[in-house]
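Final paragraph of the annual report: two paired records, presented back to back.
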Amino acid sequence: MQRSALFLLLLMLSWCVMTITHEMGHIIVGWAGGGTLTKVDLAPWRLPFSIFSPDPHPLCTLWGGPILGVAMPLFVAAIAQRNWTWLIAFFCLLANGVYLAASWISADQFLDTTKLLEHGAHPATIAAYCTATIGPGYWGLRRACIHYFTNDT
């Protein structure tokens, strides 16, 4: 019972890490590209967002979220070398890929994929990102979950 409760907390932490690193990716790249951040909300219990005005390089800013949103957790997991950090990192990998795929299907004007396409991203780059993240993210998360429930560490 205690392991299951801790696992639920770990999943909640994974969600928070995913939403914050994804949005921080937009913010870091937006600032690096000379954008002016005018509004931001990082609360993980609703969809976080950041608005730049002006944003001289919107395509770079938009790609910053999904790219740094997986790179930062994977970097931390590679350094920490703990199963629970890999679980979080693979959750982020899977969630970022699923987010871009789902927002592509929904075509919601406020979600990243629609904005990526509006600003000139080729659909093949989005498909490649989804392919590169969803499969490895699923298998890595699955392996980390099995390890979590079958080992004493």
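The closing record of the year follows.
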Amino acid sequence: MLGNYETAVSVYQKLSSRFPFGKYAQQGSLDIAYAHWKNGDSGIALASLDRYNKLYPSQEGSDYALYLRGLINFNENQTLFSSITGEDMAERDAEAGRIAFASFKQLVKKFPNTPYKEDAIKRMRFLRNVLAENEAHVARFYMRRKAYVASLNRSKVILSQYHGTPAIEEALALMVTIYEILGLQDLSNDSLRVLKLNYPLSPYLEYEYDPRETGWFAKKYQTKNKYDLE
């Protein structure tokens, strides 16, 4: 299949050279970008889209160009989706997800009647959850290394930027714990109150947490403390 896309790129490039202007050249530019992407050359595909936007700003097909940019970055982000439960930081991978989300958001806002709107919205919802979970993943990473302030900051990002995502629950639980460790009991109590109010059945409420002991995560999952606080 890759060979077919290599051939397609070659054909489109020859056509663009022979007919550099007009509707077919414009469509060919998008087809070249798509063929590069399917051929595994995401960087070249994105560069082709940049060139398209410079040559044909606000022209017919601009919605597809935005949609394709989102798709390319969405698929570049697959390493984040597959390794979100791992222990290495996924910041580089998450950046592709953020760019994809921004592209889809711009598409929906700029072209409310585009045929790609429904799919873009679905992908945006998915990306919000994944990006929020990535922040939780990073917060967990810092917590296990006792970098409490860094973990707290990541938890705050989840609360401020990713309303309504599943990661909110763990972010609140982390804040309860970290504030207690830092001796900020009032803030810990406030976070606990919000956690109880919004997640009355949360597993994080099932056991009292003591950072000097094994912690509620270990009791909940019958394993070593998730945060290795000892």
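The CA atoms of residues 90 and 145 lie 16 Å apart. This concludes the annual technical report; the extension proposal builds directly on these records.
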